Amino acid sequence: MNLDTTTALRRRVEPRDIQLSRLTAGWQDMDRAATLRQHASIYGPVPDLSRRGRHGLLDEVAAAHLTGRGGASFPTGVKMRTVAAKRGPAVVVANGMESEPASEKDQALLARAPHLVLDGIALAADAVGAREAHLCLPRTRGWLIDIVMAAAEERRRADIDPVPLSIHELPHNYVSSEETSLVHWLNGGEAKPTNTPPRPFERGVGKRPTLIDNVETLAHVALIARYGAGWFREAGRGNAAGTMLTTVSGAVEQPGVYEIEAGSGVGDVLWTAGADTAAEAVLLGGYFGTWHEIRDVADLPFTASGLRRVGGAPGAGVLYVLPPGACGLVEAARVLRYLAGQSAQQCGPCMFGLPAIADDLGQLASARPEGDPLGRMQRRFAQIEGRGACRHPDGAVRMAASALRAFGADAHAHARRRACSVSQQPRQHTPMMPMSRPVAEEGWR
Amino acid sequence: MIGAASAEHPLNAATASHALAVGTSGPSPLWYTTRATGVVALVLLTVTVALGVAGTARMETRAVPGIVRAGLHRNLSLLAVAFVAVHIITAVLDPFAGIGFVSAVIPFSSAYRPLWLSLGTIAFDLLLALIITSLIRTRLPYMAWRAVHRLAYACWPIALWHGLGTGTDSRLPWLLALDAACVAVVAAAVGWRLQISRPADLRQFGFVATAGFVVATVVFAALGPLQSGWSRRAGTPVHAAGAIPPKTASVNREAPTTRHIEDYA
Amino acid sequence: MSLKLEINPIACTGHGLCADLAPELVELDEWGYPIIHERVPNDLAVHARRAVNACPTLALRLSRSQRHKEQN
Questions:
Q1: What span, in angstroms and rounded, lies between the C-alpha atoms of C15 and C5?
Q2: Mean pLDDT of B240-248
Q3: Which of the two ends of chain C, N or C, has the fewest CB atoms closer than 10 A to its terminal CB?
Q4: What would the pLDDT profile of B15-60 be if each residue is shown by its tens digit?
Q5: Which residues pair with C62 in a beta bridge?
Q6: Domain assignment present for B81
Q7: In this predicted model, what pLDDT tens digit does every residue of B107-127 receive, in sequence order?
Q8: Are A415 and A364 in contact, with CB atoms under 8 Å apart?
Q9: How many folded domains does chain C comprise?
Q10: Are residues A168 and A132 in the same domain?
Q11: CB A218, CB A94: distance < 8 Å
């Protein structure tokens, strides 16, 4: 039992209740997706923007300080204004791919409140002057596609969306949820990232300025359009605004999706999900994220700026608690092996570098080092980072490097073929979330 | 009858005609140049193709690094163009076969062995496309250049079959050996390159196509140019037929001088 | 104004001709892929241009950068 962690998690005698039901309003009472009528009864009708005009929504979203919920945390208002300012008709793409295996929030949102997302798409399309809208979903989630298509069909019959929406089923690979992958696929190519420039907001689908937003971001837009920026900012701690969806998994009593106030502390989030007080380490930001000792991050806000000082980021609001008794290096090695296998295989440093460091970390994890895997990895990190067309190799390197830091003592022990702090006996522990199919099986088109 | 000629009358009709015939209608230096430059061009193209394929197969040795191989590939291809140019110009200038300049770029426009000559025309058209696009490579989109450059896999076999079909020397043993060597070199290079090809069915297709081409060439040579009477079957115009001087090693059953006299008697 | 050498990592298939032609600007990593030194000193411009032209997949690009000359 790690005294520091227990203290960190239990420091607040009355743990703060950080949950707030905005997007998740009414989810407890429903076991299926809200119909259009139910949606209207919870949130009210879709606001008529013709009075306020296009700039009305752009100003509201900017004033609300809404940031992207897909992982990049880019200010949504700035993005929308940039696309709106470009000449010619724009395109809106809603990213519902959620390729991160440790994340479930987008599925949950689309499965329970699809109309929030569809509202957001329609409003964003109107605001940026788009004449077509697309929603991208992974083709492996047939059940989700059915729900969303039923909701879209309701709206078509009610004729409430002037901009036509197409729903697409894409291959479900890790890098297929990247912005340029979506654009490439919509333009007829494979769901693989492409070179930038040009970025999608300059030239994307059909060579037109394209706004690509995570489905949760668009759901927030739908609520900001109704209740305003001031209402949005009523929630949120510190400088953060609004609420966010998080997925907590691993050694927690109640794994799942939680809607919390943005800016809540990491420790509060873990406590809310009932994290095991004996747990010592947490993976923040998903498979793409970083490992930390819980005591180092418990007091920090779960935001991009808050975690920057420890080299972390919330990503798409993902937290995985490493079970006590599990070796962090083993889990990190599994994740790295997965990420290496998910490479689009377009760029040499990623295609060859990631499997190489996955081998190195695997050697460390199994305490069977050949030569000096630690030294090799450090050298290879520098060779791989920044040399791909997309950020996939960078994320993998960052995750691996953070594992070496967070489990440094274990790493050195393994390098000397000694057992780490975890006993030799394999423990039963919650396995990581299932990983998607290997790219060779899934395909790219 | 020719046999009636006698040494006392050096300028009797038969010998005079014979002398006239050989002097005005026999193969000229131009024709020999055409054939020679054709053979050299084929060899140069063969090495060019092999070097190009080696590049895609990443075959690199310390003695021949990538830039040397690439430079050789480029320079030999340009040299091949020079030889092909001479090959065409001499063929056109030579009145023997009656080929016009038009036939250099437009297929099926010559009276001399129309099909087999047209193969040469087509190969030349393809070669022009390859060379020109490669000279302006940095100004073209890469995919466009690559698509055109793949035509090399068509250009070389067509050039080879052109040589077999039109070449009046096809039956010479050394030339047969040279042709066989060219086929072997390209087949080996392509076969080696196919080893690293993915996916597997593309690789299989490549092997089958390469083997098929080799077999087809052998069969074609055996049933075509190597058979007697090929000259006529290939469409050699009558006036040019039988003009092969008897000194060549070709097994030409037609008695050239006899036929000649009969035609013009 | 100085020259900038950039690579398209998707187009690059690791032939390595660039490293042979401009070793001061291009180093190969352990997998044969180029690590580019972006800033091209003027005396190496011709070598950079040769490397760009020699690339079998046209993955290199030479452009004029707007930055002021760096100290090193």
A1: 17
A2: 51
A3: C
A4: 554 444 444 555 688 888 999 999 999 999 999 999 999 998 887 7
A5: C5
A6: yes
A7: 888 777 788 888 999 999 999
A8: yes
A9: 1
A10: yes
A11: yes
Q: Which domain holds residue A291?
A: 3-12+236-322
ipTM over the 0.85 cut-off: yes
Q: Which of A313, A404, A69 is nearest to A214 (CA)?
A: A69
Enclosing domain of residue B46: 27-244+252-259
Which tens digit of pLDDT belongs to each residue from B133-161? 999 999 999 999 999 999 999 999 999 99
CB pair distance less than 8 Å for A347 and C30 = no
Distance CA A128, CA A201 (A): 11
Contact assignment for A389 to C13 by CB distance below 8 Å: no
Give the tens place of pLDDT for each residue, A200-238: 999 999 999 999 999 999 999 999 999 999 999 999 998
Mean pLDDT over the full length of chain A: 89
Interfacial B residues in 141-170 facing C (CB < 8 Å): 142, 145
Contact in structure between A136 and A94 (CB atoms under 8 Å): yes
Rounded Cα–Cα distance for residues A419 and A327 (Å): 10
Residue A76 in any domain: the answer is yes
The three-point CA angle B25-B29-B30 to 5° equals 90
Interface check C70 vs A, CB under 8 A = no
**How many alpha carbons lie under 13 Å from residue A20 in its C-beta half-sphere?**
18
Q: Does residue A217 sit in the same domain as residue A98?
A: yes
Q: Any idea how long chain C is?
A: 72
Average pLDDT for residues C32-46, to the nearest whole number? 93
With 60 as the cut, is the pLDDT of residue A90 above it?
Answer: yes
List CB contacts of B91: < 8 A, sequence separation 6 or more: B30, B31, B34, B97, B99
In angstroms, rounded to a whole number, what is the distance separating the alpha carbons of residues A275 and A251? Answer: 6
Contact B44, B38 (CB under 8 A): no
CATH code at C17?
3.30.70.20
Task: State how many domains chain A has.
Answer: 3
Is residue A430 over pLDDT 50? no
| Whether C63 contacts chain B with CB within 8 A | no
CB contact under 8 A, C21 and B70: no
